## 1
Amino acid sequence: MKQVLSVLVQNQPGVLVRVASMFSRRGFNIDSLAVGVTQDPDYSRITAVVCGDQATVDQVIKQLDKIVEVVAIQNLSHTSSVTRGLALLKVRANERRTEVLKLAEVFRANVVDIQENSLTLEVNGDDEKINALAELLMPFGLLEMIRTGLIGLTRGDNTIYKCEEIDEND
Amino acid sequence: MKMSGAKAIVECLLEQGVDTVFGYPGGMILPLYDALHDTTALRHVLTVHEQGAAHAADGYARASGRVGVCIATSGPGATNLVTGLATAYMDSVPVVAITGQVPTDVIGQDAFQEIDIVGMTMAVTKHNFQVKDVNKLPEVIRYAFRIARSGRPGPVLVDVPRNVQTAKIDFYNLSPQCEGEWHLGAGSINLIDEAVKAIKEAEQPAIIIGGGVINAEAHNEIKSLAEHLHMPVVSTLMGLGGFPGSHPLFLGMTGLHGHKAANNVIHNADTILAIGCRFSDRVTGDREQYGAQKTVIHIDVDPAEIDKNVMAHIGIAGDLKKILIMLNERAAAKDFTNWWEVIRAWQTDLEIEVDESRLNAPLVMQNIVEQTKGIDTIFVTDVGQHQMWAAQYLKIEKPRTWLTSGGLGTMGFGLPAAMGAQFAMPDKKVIHFAGDGGMKMTGNELYTIAANCLPIISIIINNQGLGMIRQLQHAFYNKRYTACILPSKVDFTMYAKSFGIHGVNVDTLAEFKTAFRRALQSKQPEVIVVNIASENLVTPMMLPGASLDDYVDL
Ligand SMILES: Cc1ncc(C[n+]2csc(CCOP(=O)(O)OP(=O)(O)O)c2C)c(N)n1
């Protein structure tokens, strides 16, 4: 089972290492880890896709909570949320170029580079969508693929800052 | 007031009430040492080795409940602290380590004695910092102390580049901030009520206490609870002293080398109330079986400990004292006479008979219990067989009087930790135990003990070998003894004498009694070498990873 955790952290040097090394030290499996600054430059947000049963994910959350720079944690899998990742896919495309472009259209992927023998697509979406496109492109010759970790937000006006308030009252 | 960063560190230490620091100088920490020169209110203890400084700070903290402080230079000085920090981390001991670092403009260039100590100690500290801006230095030092002390305590390292120590800042004193008080929330109160219900339904309950009880200073609350409910109490290695060792409700230590009666009680209990313990594998054996067919109520300050090792039916995270007080108010006493009959029978049937034909460690421990009655003692051990014998046979009556490396099991911990304990508690009699292996690891701290004239009694259980290793090879490797025999090439009494410390060899119980009686009177450091047979084994011994009633046939 995969769950998406969103973690608000103080933007201190080494905070990503601290979070990442906790995952590896305690043997937690993560699918992806994405980090970036928030609207407030003093804070960053880390999105981690964690694999494991519910007990494991609960333990991950508790261990994250012990890291001094961690301010709040939200489990996006437990609320209605949008998650997105970005992928770049370089495909061999000579005589079957139009087929590739058709597929790109269906997936609303953008062509970001086009050469005689290859073209590169940019696609965003959740994991499943990106995986589906990659699979369909495989027979054409998928030369390279690179993807960012997933990022996500809850739907509606609920924010991670509300989790923070609850935390403090506890 | 304008002052250097180094002076500001000293001011911050004084603010925190620090009276003693343990350390070892070097180039990158010299500005701090220079600032210490004028500070009479702060005693600096120069140890023999930085590992000694870290263990001493740890021993100081364990014995007193205050934060222990150690100082080292960059590079090798800092790396020498690592084992000590890891030891404190595994046993949740509040320590602040301050390390020197190369100047900020050369960090990352493999400068002389540069090491990334922050990266290196991330896994063995509760938190760590490198301070690059002198203006942040005071707040970081203060924060380090707060982190070390609060919640589940632990070591914190602050790495200070040399140019940050020499840079000038405007310093203003600030008295230490009080921790925001933890309040029982509605959720916790509900859980306490569930626990009350579970105890009410229990026929065969038991309390198991761990080191968290000592950290939370919740010993009185546990005692009231156990007496009120008339429940049997067992302790982990780390919890010893959290409940009076000679109390009739106390059954001894549980775990790998625990008392059989104590293990039986846990194994057969239908409800266990685990307080401030983390269900280490040395305590549980097989974790699946451990919690099976019983209701587990787990109370700990660290929410991450609940459901980490053993799944709890009722898990309550928070301040142990507050939780226990409410639990005690709400839980009703119940008659457990039948259960107690079973337990008392185990106690008589399973008592270990101590062989009196020859001098051995259990006899020594029993005699120490007798001779130290009425004396305020602190027992400090190293790691190995002697540690287990001490845990089994000494009756630890009060918290913070049993100091041992439980989580990491660090050989070499004992002597420097004893030193730290004596500095923290000058009026208590500190009694240290070591094996002849561990004593060789950090025994040179006898030099520091001699230099400071600390009246510590060091008892070396000399079995001419790495006894615990020998025992494991005896039990699990077909008696193929490898790398565990230590030829008698050192006379520890002469070793002690080289530091000007009086030492004596004893070969019989009578000799031990006399030597120990004499040592107790002494105001000087004393060493007693107890020569025992190398074949002695610690019994009982659970099969590691098996259930609590599965013992090795030794
Ligand atoms: C630093 C360190 N290295 C190795 C070990 C593994 N170890 C555990 S007990 C032990 C033997 C200890 O021998 P000794 O100090 O003579 O004590 P005894 O068991 O004989 O009482 C060893 C080597 C350890 N715990 N710590």
## 2
Amino acid sequence: MKSIATEAVVLRRTPFGESDLLVGLFTRDLGVLTTIAKGARRSRKRFGGILDTLARLNVLIETRRANAIPLLAGASLVDFGLGLRSSLDRVAIAYYMGELVWRGTKPGVRLIELYEAFVQALDRVASDGPMPRTLAEFLLRYQQALGYRPKLDACALCHAPLAVAAEVAISYRAGGVLCPACVPSAEVNLRLPGRAVRSLVEIRAQGDRRPTDHALEDWSAAADWPALRHFLHRFTQYHLDVQPASWRWWQRLIDA
Amino acid sequence: MAAVKDPLRLLVELLQKVPGMGEKSATRMAYHFMKAPAQEVLGLAEALRRLKAEMRECEECCDVSFRSPCETCANPKRDPAVICVVADSSHIKPLERSGAYAGVYHVLHGTLSPMENVGPEQLRIAPLLRRIEGRPVCEVILAINPTMEGETTMLYLMDLLKDRGLRVTKLPVGLALGSDIEYTDHETLGKALRDRVQVSSRAT
Ligand SMILES: [Zn+2]
Ligand SMILES: [Zn+2]
């Protein structure tokens, strides 16, 4: 038996057997992982109410025999994400990010950078941060962590640096933006305003550095967000096998 | 030809579909039925048959009931102007045991769950709105578990119910009776502190 202490965010909860709970976690050190919390539904002594979706915990995981579900031996609360519960938009974005992590990454594979990006994004969504910018940043880091980072500053086919243009063609299959010369020979999925593409390049260049509030305001005020959101989602979707349910859920809210 | 299943094994398999029923309990129960008097077991089978044939949803509150309107909705002593919204039928009994409530209920049959794609259409939200529009309602109490899914559902309902000229309330999050502050998580304590109630005013 091996014990691992790590930090984790709860992504899924499924009742199991008579009184147990299967808890799907995104852990800092073990990637996504389904663990079993014994007796969690019968007694609240050990876990209280902290095994809630999107709660951030310090956990103790015990791996038993191969093929056995790892045991969630202990958990203590780091952050309940109460701020997420202040608006439906925040909830929807948090679930969407969580589902991308759950469905898009391989169980047991450590992705520390993605974990950091995820908790940072959750924090910002929970604390009144500008949501479009936060989500765009998270999706770019998600794509990077999973190895399908879109090419945005040079043509995805011929690698020619991209000239400043009012509109830029994008091909998912080619892997990013296209220069005018390559457009006829590729499948174009959508066109984005040139300034929107440049703002993504800028965000990516800033990396982990927290942008100034001024930059945030500027960006979130941009009229390009619906188009960017569409692009970032579709590009991610192109590389995933499944359509995240929470995306459809959120879109319905936006449309309503 | 398909092989006929041993009825004992079939029963164990079917019982295991009951939420919270593991193989051990299912087997224990199946053996109990095997040894029990035939009349008792057939009575149970008949009750199950009638359950499916005769139980329906109350046209008012959507709770499962033998009659529609259900006993609670038909009770003239209950105040129909106050509606307590719950996620599940099983939450009515504990609220009734509190003895603190004399209004009527509304059962949603679930909570909004983005990752499972459970949206408003899957819940009994439209019947709730019809109820509110159809008669004078002065208060809607949201008595839904303060989990992420529960809070999501309450947010959605609060949005839907605003500007309708009615009071919308929710149960506060705080200390459970008999609990220990030392063992209460800090978020619950923070919420309890923020939502504290006044017990006496400052002497002037
Ligand atoms: Zn090119
Ligand atoms: Zn009723």
